[in-house]
C-alpha cells in the first residue's frame, strides 16, 4: 500500500486498512509515495491512497502512475482518494466525486477498485495561507469556516468495508 498525504489523515486511513488486512492474514507493506523505491513487479496487488489539496492529487502520485502504468496494468490495483468534497452524500463515490472524475480523465490508468473517503478539516493545524485558502473553498462549497473548526468527516464503516473488500482479492 502506497500513500500520499498532506496532513496525515490519508496515513490514518491506510493504518486502519493495514490493520484489517493483517487481521485477515493478508501480506501487506506500507510505503509513503516519497519513500517507495521498490519494483512493482514484485507485488501481485497494489493499493494507492492519495489526498487532495486545492483540488488536485499530489503530482508524485500522477508521476508514479505514469512511470509504472504498464506494471500496474499487470497486477490487481485499488485506488482511494481522500478529500473534503466527499463529506457531501452526493459526492462521495468514484462516479460522483469531481476530483476523482477529473483525476481519471487526466491519467491513463483504470484500477480494479476505486473508493472515495471524506477527509478531515482542522483549521488550527494548517499554515496561515492554507487555512485562508481552505476557508475560502469551504465558503464556496457551503462548509464550515470557523478557524477553530476540527471535524473528521471520514466514514470509518466505509473504510472498514473497503478493507474487507480488499481481503476478498
Specify the overall morphology: globular
Q: Please report the total strand number as a whole number.
A: 8
Please state the CA-atom Rg, rounded to the nearest Å. Answer: 16 Å
Named CATH architecture of the largest domain: 3-Layer(aba) Sandwich
Task: Give the helix proportion (percent range).
Answer: 25-40%
CATH superfamily (homologous) name of the largest domain: Flavodoxin domain
Text of the CATH class of the largest domain: Alpha Beta
**Which range does the strand content fall in?**
15-25%
What is the CATH topology classification name of the largest domain? Rossmann fold
Let me know the largest β-sheet. 6 strands, mixed
In total, how many domains does the architecture comprise?
Answer: 2
- The parts where pLDDT drops under 50 for at least 5 residues are none
What can you tell me about this protein's structure?
This protein has helices at 9-23, 59-72, 98-106, 128-140, 156-167, and strands at 2-4, 31-32, 45-53, 56-57, 76-83, 113-118, 120-122, 150-152. The chain has 169 residues and is α/β, with parallel strands linked by helices. It folds into two domains: 2-119 and 154-167, Flavodoxin domain (Rossmann fold), CATH 3.40.50.360; 121-153, no CATH class. The strands form two sheets. Strands 1, 2, 3, 4, 5 and 6 form a six-stranded mixed β-sheet that branches. Helix 1 (9-23) crosses helix 5. The mean pLDDT is 94.
